[in-house]
Amino acid sequence: MENDRLEIARLYHRFGFGPRPGEFKAALNNGLAATKAKFLSVPTIDLGAAQVAEPNITNLGTRPDKKTNELIEFSIALRQQVKDLPLWWLDRMALSDHALTERMTWFWHGHWATAIGKLNHAYPMYLQNQTLRKYALGNFGEMTTAMLSDGALQFWLDGGENTAKSPNENLARELMELFTLGVNRYTETDVRELSRALTGYQIERPSGKVTFNAKRYDSKIKTILGTSTTFNGNTAAAHLVAQKDCAKFIAERFWFRFISSQIELPSDNSLEKSFETRDISKLVGALTDSQILSNPNYSIVKPPVEWFVGVARYLKLTPSELKTPAQLLAYLDRLAQVPFNPPNVGGWPTDESWLSSASAQYRIQFAAWLVKQADLSALAAIAPNKRIAWLQDELGVLAFSARTRLALDGVKGTPAQLLQLAICSPEYVVSA
Amino acid sequence: MDTLSRRKFLQLSGAAAVGAAAPLLTMEDIAHAAQTRPLPLGTPILIMVTLYGGNDGLNTVVPYTDPLYYSMRPDISYEPEKILKLDDQLGLNPAMTGIKTMWDQNKVAIVRGVGYPKPDRSHFTSMAIWQSGAPVTRLSSGWLGRWVESQAVDPMLAISLGSVLPPLLAGEKRSGSALPLGGLVIPTGTFAKDCQKLAKVASSDNKLMAAAATSMRTLFSVSNTITPVLKMPAPVADDLPTVNGGNAGGDSNLAQQLDVVAKLIAAGSPTRVWSVSLGGFDTHANEANAQAELLGTVSAALTRFASQMKNTSRGKDIVTMVYSEFGRRVKGNASQGTDHGTAGPVFLIGDRVKGGFYGDQPSLSNLVNGDLSVTTDFRDIYAAVLEDVLKSPGEKILTGWKSKGQYF
Q: In this structure, is residue A268 part of a structural domain?
């Protein structure tokens, strides 16, 4: 039963952005098998996510030349779109009924980490987000092909600058190192050869449209990982995805982000085999196996976005309706994690990186700001003596320590302070 | 968050911090009130400046008389007359005027061709290797994090600017602290006491929960001592013009980080290692302008910092080290940029530094797979920094690597 509680807590916090009110306790009653099955079966229509209107993010075209009213309008629209985009996504994360799809989209965003800063336009990032969602639980090979036609990724890694005449290795290197194979599973010659295969792409910036220009494409034979043929982007991508190392690498990345970034993926794992057909949903299924989820050693720190969305889901807050949304983005920025703006192509850091003294401070302030805006009547209706145990179930915490129970006991008469401390406690910040 | 609003946030919070300082405290007040143990005068202080993205060393310290430099980089080489000449072979990027001035004062050591065995061209692996200081054994802790662990517990000992701690300062069990720009504002009153109850490590905590609790404890101890100091104005750099040419503005993030560092050093913070950083050096395309702008920022920020510190009793104690995870490929690519390479120069700056060149300049006619050969192992520099600046034996921290002296 204790192990069921651990596994169910992990399902909620790692695969679903945390429980809504009453959800965790209901899941405990329904049992582990039923809860897991519910997590893994994605409904065709998610009514919660469907409430979130698509954002007004459009192709704004090129920047008007001179100091005209047009330029002012353009700049205002651009700024608005850049702000609306992360709020729209945070709303989807907080409001979707079956959070796994958004959770996986969020994982893939950190995997194919593209930042809006270099592009300046929201529109290509919005398109990329749709691609990531479309394939979030689909086929990794298809996802990789689609990403090579993604304008945001191509522009981010200078794909348009990579021509037959003189290759630019940026995309080729990261495609192998960070997206499909993992570092040191290829040679420097493979990087150079792959960059030749990836020539010919051109990116139209505001629209993010990717076209193929045969004149810039290197049509000669390339040798990549021991195979020699006239590779192009799509065939090279398929070649990389078909490598055994690809299954190994994606299994490692899932392990690192969902299970533990402290303890390495054991060599005798079932994940690689589950990914034989490159079906992402099968890999997620293998990841939620009890052998893994019940191991008490695999704790992980919730990155700021996951911590925030967890709190928002529990407090029934809609991110874009907080007072003010700009303040929300400022808090996430101080905690160093804003959607669509990863620090670099390797994505966000993990675990201890989120536990600096500075983030502790911001988390306390952020928590106070969120709790102030929430309806706490359900907590207030519980007798003070029962509130700590009740919150432990509501928040899906495995077990508050004696330390935390003592701290919470001091404020149990004040629902707002009680909740603020509870969501800043080590037991909530860290998924046990 | 886009850079504009980030900058705006920084300006706003900076202004608020200064404005809120009702009575301006003296150094003595702060030292007393905040119960700091001010750093004894004459204690060397290390400033680590990390350039993220792989700075192109060949366009930082330019071999401006080598014809191969021009033939291999037709699009992105600097004309000889624009170079800030250091000797008859090498010169600095035209944007680095401030560092050139310090070089002329014999305060800059340039270590050439710095790297490590079997160079890795991945940003992440290579930066991890540089920050861990362990290219062969691959440790997960940082070399300065291990130094922190060799010292008595003090959350003020090593501080990184920004809210995310770099691996550089991460130890196995204890780490340096992170300090966001704008400073720390801690909860006060009874609620603060309740928060502090959460800051104790519980016996049932796993490693990460213990770290979460410790981060709160560090918050309270660091912020109690640092917050009043941050309300002080930064030391004045009275020998610099208020508006200076191309790099004016002083609004770069690096300058902001160094401003906070300057304030805290001037106030006597018992901190012996500071870590600051600047990103954006991954110049695969259109390198010349982008890199010159970044190097200009580094040069101007460090010059301003040195000038600020000169007016304090700590000026002579500061040693600044500037490094990046790798240099770039010698040949330019088609997009007026360069791809990932290997060796690059490391700068050591300060009154304690013996100025001049160290290590051999990698030859352009003797490349290894199109890349510069490594002529100096970074552990030589780390070992000297540990022994001569941090006064600690380097061998244990650097898995047996011995200092060869020089530089200081």
A: yes
Task: For domain B26-183+237-287+297-397, say whether CATH 3.40.720 is its number.
Answer: yes
Residue B251 confidence (pLDDT) above 70? no
According to DSSP, residue A288 is labeled T
Indicate the pLDDT class of residue B334, thresholds 50, 70 and 90: confident
Spatial distance between the Cα atoms of B257 and B100, rounded to a whole number of angstroms: 22
CA distance A297 to B214: 19
Q: In the predicted model, is pLDDT for residue B250 greater than 80?
A: no
| Nearby residues of B21 by Cβ (< 8 Å), 6 or more positions away | B231, B232
Cβ–Cβ gap B209/A401 under 8 Å: yes
- Give B289→chain A minimum CA distance, Å: 15
Taking the domains of chain B in order of start, what are their residue ranges? 26-183+237-287+297-397
Taking the CA of residue B201 and the nearest CA in chain A, the distance in Å comes to 8
Comparing CB atoms, the residue among B123, B204, B285 nearest residue A161 is: B285
Residue of A292, A386, A331 whose CA lies nearest to A6: A292
The interface predicted TM-score of the complex, written ipTM, equals: 0.90
Across A271-282, average pLDDT = 97
Is residue A282 situated within a structural domain? yes
CB contact under 8 A, B123 and A344: yes
Q: pLDDT for A18-72, tens place per residue?
A: 999 999 999 999 999 999 999 999 999 999 999 999 999 999 988 888 777 788 8
| Nearest C-alpha neighbor of A171 from the set B339, B299, B173 | B339
Nearest Cβ partner for B194 among A165, A178, A421: A421
Please tell me the distance from the alpha carbon of residue A194 to that of residue B264, in angstroms, as a whole number. 49
- How confident is the model over A312-324, as pLDDT tens digits? 999 999 999 999 8
Chain A residues whose beta carbon lies within 8 Å of the beta carbon of residue B218? 357, 360
Tell me the pairing of strands B84-85 and B91-92.
antiparallel
The predicted model scores a pTM of 0.77
Boundary (domain end) residue, out of A251, A277, A297: A297
Residue type, B246: G
Q: Mean pLDDT score of chain A, rounded to an integer? A: 94
| Interface contact B202-A404, CB threshold 8 A | yes
User: Chain B closest CA to A276's CA: distance in Å?
Assistant: 27
Say how many C-beta atoms besides its own lie within 10 A of residue B288's C-beta: 18
Alpha-carbon distances, residue A201 vs A125, A204, A283, B287 (angstroms): 18, 10, 31, 21
CB-CB neighbors (< 8 A) of A217 in chain B:
none
What tokens does B248 get?
A: 């004016």
Give residue A237's pLDDT band: very low, low, confident or very high (50, 70, 90).
very high
Which residues in A124-220 belong to E strands, given as ranges?
A: 201-204, 209-212
